[in-house]
Amino acid sequence: MTDSKNKPAPRPTIKAVRGTRDLLPDQTPLWNRVEATARAVFSRYGFGEIRTPVFEATELFARGVGEETDIVSKEMFTWEDRARAASEKAQNLTLRPESTAGVVRAYIEHKLGETGQLQKLYYIGPQFRRERPQRGRYRQFWQIGAEVIGPQTSGAESPLRDAEVLEMLASLLDELGIRDWKLELNSVGNAEDRARFNVALREALAPVKDRMCPDNQRRAETNPLRVLDSKEEADQEIINALPKIADYLGDESREHFEQVKAALDACGVPYHVNPRLVRGLDYYTRTTFEFTVTTGLGTQNALLGGGRYDGLSEMLGGPKAPGIGFAIGEDRLILTLQAQAEADAAASGIAPTEPKLDVYIAPLGIAQNPAALKLARELRREGLSVEVGDGSFKIGKSFGFADKLARHIILLGEDEVVTNVLTVKTFSTGEQVKVNRDVLADTLRG
C-alpha cells in the first residue's frame, strides 16, 4: 500500500517566458495570410528575401543603432560567449533587437555593393527586446521589414526611392485591408543639419531639463534629439515648445524632402508632416516616417516606421551606401486586423466563422482504416484538405468530430470500398448523397 504522505510533490508546470507567447493553429492562418501578402507585394517591387542570424556581435548594435538609444542601453538581451579554446577570445553576443543593422552588415560582408546594383531586400522574423510586456508589445516580437541600399551610382540616394518605399507600404496596407491608416512624415536632415539642431536643442533644454524625467535629463546631455522621441506624458509640454528641426535643414535636405513629397503627391499617397517625428534610432538621416492607425492599438498607435540611413554602412566599417528601410510590427498589424474584423462583425451582426477542412473521412470499422488513409492521400493530392477518423469510433462520435472540423463527411464502409461509390453528407444543407469516386473531388469542391 502506497503511503500518500511519501508521494513526491507534483512538479510545477513550465510556462512560456514572460513577454513571449505561443501562436496556436487557430491563430496562424491570419499570420500566414499577412506574410504571404507582404511577400507578393514586395516581389512586385523587385525585392528579394534575406535571412540573417537571430544573434549578432553586440558591437553591431552599439555602433549601428546607437549606445544612447533605449534599445542598446536598456533593452537588449546580451551575453558573453565564452571562448572554447585558448586561441579564441570571448565575444559579447546579442539577440537582434532590430534587423536593419544586420542586413547592412550582410550587405558589407558579402560585398553586395560591388555589383553596382540597387539592393532591395526584405525579411520576416523575430526580434528581441527586454521591454515591459503590454498589449501589442512582447519581448519576442515579429517584424516584416525591407531595406533599399546600394552605392550612390545605383540611385540609392534618390528621393524617388523614399517615395517608392512609402507608396509600396500604402499599397500593402490597402491590400491587407487596413483602414484609416495615416502616414506621418518628416526630415531629420543630414549630419550637418543635425549638428546645428543639436546645438539649438541643448541651449533650449538647458534651463528646463531639470524639470524632466531622469531619462530625458540624461538624453538632454548625451543625445538631445532623443528627447523629441520621448513618450513621457509629463514632459510633453516642454518637448512641444522645443525648436523644430525643419528650421535647421540645409538647402540640400530641404530639396530632398520636397522631392519626396512631390512624388507622393503625384501617386496620390496622403501624408502629414510631423516636425516632432525623429524615430528612436541614431542611424536615421533625412526622411523619417511612421504609419499609424485608429483601430486596435489604443494610444500607442504606430503600426510601422522607418527612414533613410545614408551613413550606416560607413558606421559599420563599410563603403558609402545610402539606404532607406522600414519595419512593420507584425504583432501590432495582426491586432489591428483582428480589431477591424470584430468591429465589422459587430456592425453586421454576423459572427465570424472559422475556416473548415473540406472533408472528414469516417471509416466504418477498423478494417477500413487503411482504405480511409488511401482515400485521404488521393484527395489531398487533388488539393483538398482532409481529416481522417478512426474505425474504432462509433458513428455518432465521427459525426460530432466531423461537424466541428469539416464541410463534408464521407462514410467509408466495406461496400463503399468495393464499389467506389461513397456516401457523402454536407453539413450546411444536411443533404446526403452517393458519389462515384471519379467525380468525388469535384463534388467536394462544389
Automatic annotation (TrEMBL):
GO terms for cellular component: cytoplasm. Pfam families: HGTP_anticodon, tRNA-synt_His. GO terms for biological process: histidyl-tRNA aminoacylation. It catalyses: tRNA(His) + L-histidine + ATP = L-histidyl-tRNA(His) + AMP + diphosphate + H(+). InterPro entries: aa-tRNA-synth_II (IPR006195), aa-tRNA-synth_II/BPL/LPL (IPR045864), Anticodon-bd (IPR004154), Anticodon-bd_dom_sf (IPR036621), His-tRNA-ligase (IPR015807), HisRS-like_core (IPR041715), HisRS/HisZ (IPR004516), HisRS_anticodon (IPR033656). Keywords: Aminoacyl-tRNA synthetase, ATP-binding, Cytoplasm, Ligase, Nucleotide-binding, Protein biosynthesis. Its main location: cytoplasm. Its EC number is 6.1.1.21. GO terms for molecular function: ATP binding; histidine-tRNA ligase activity. It is found in: Cytoplasm. The keyword ATP-binding applies. L-histidine binds at residues 98-100, 129, 143, 147, 279, 283-284. The keyword Disulfide bond does not apply. Residues 15-352 form the Aminoacyl-transfer RNA synthetases class-II family profile domain. Homodimer. Belongs to the class-II aminoacyl-tRNA synthetase family. This is Histidine--tRNA ligase.
